[in-house]
Amino acid sequence: MGVNEARTGTAGQENLPQLSIGQWQHKHVLDLDDFSKDEINLVLEIADSMVDILSRDVKRVPTLRGKTIATMFYEPSTRTRASFELAAKYLSADTVSLDATKSSVAKGESLIDSLRTLQALEVDAVIIRHPCAGAPYLAAQHIEKSIINAGDGCHAHPSQGLLDMYTLKRRLGNLAGRKIVIIGDIMHSRVARSWIWCTRFFDINLVLCAPPTLIPFGFRDMLKTCGLNHVTIEYDLDKAVVDSDVVMPLRMQKERQQSGLISTIREYMQLYQLNQARLAKAKPDAFVMHPGPMNEGLEISRDVAYGSRSLIEQQVTNGVAVRMALLYLIAGGKNR
After folding, report:
1. Which alpha helices (DSSP H) does 241-311 contain, by range?
2. Which residues contact 300 (CB under 8 A, 6 or more apart)?
3. 2 or 189, higher pLDDT
4. Are 163 and 198 in a shared domain?
5. Short-list 128, 206, 205, 194, CA closest to 163
6. What is the pLDDT of residues 268-286, one digit of tens each?
7. pTM of the predicted model, to two decimals?
8. Where residue 291 sits, what CATH number does that domain have?
9. Which domain does 220 fall in, by range?
């Protein structure tokens, strides 16, 4: 069934938002730096329709029947991989999964060779996670199929940025003037980088808080050069969280902390862990988020992670809806 038919509500399917002429311009989803405000809002609008689908007893519509979605994960993943695969299945697409540890990649097959194999198998879109920044861009240059970046090195994680934005809008409504604090390893965080681009249109005050060694060298100058004036940097967490609306610790990537960027894990916990005492300095109705996976007791205390102000489980649920929206836009035929 074609996408135009799906939008008219035929074959038992509800109406999905009509795409305005020129509103969606993407064949690929590689990062959010080339998304317009209208395109971000379009993804979030379609995600609302997908949430309605997910609320049913039978969570399946025929929108992508006959399409094939491939996943290529060169790094471990639970949430992102599972939510993309569920998103494809709920839209009735067929799925092909390539696990780098169990495929010909383990025998030395290159990324490009693997992609060409998938293209020869006539897949319609490829979802790729890779430890090297820029790998999805390389993929987009070598095959004709649509590429969705599910995380590339320290560079970008666009679907995470979009699902976090969707979670915020559902809980907070108008985001103008809101103060959001991201805590932790900004140096290695693809999530933080996608957040910076995703929030630039919404009059949000985004505060990045980390030890100086976990802020990339020259980051302030880069933000200024790119016109990202909504972002500020603060090294003192107790100051950063004051009057904040949302606080989001990042996972401490212990596998990347072998070069002495922090003195000890214990000291990091003392200075940068989000616990009840620090959360009390935020607004009384402030929410807590985390992109996962969490190191409970390290960057976030367990009582905060599972407390009444936590949106972490809602982020996971909303991830399926937002990824359904992206697949609808990319694989449903409205791409260039």
Report:
1. 265-272, 276-279, 302-305
2. 249, 273, 274, 275, 288, 290, 294
3. 189
4. yes
5. 194
6. 999 999 999 999 999 999 9
7. 0.90
8. 3.40.50.1370
9. 158-305
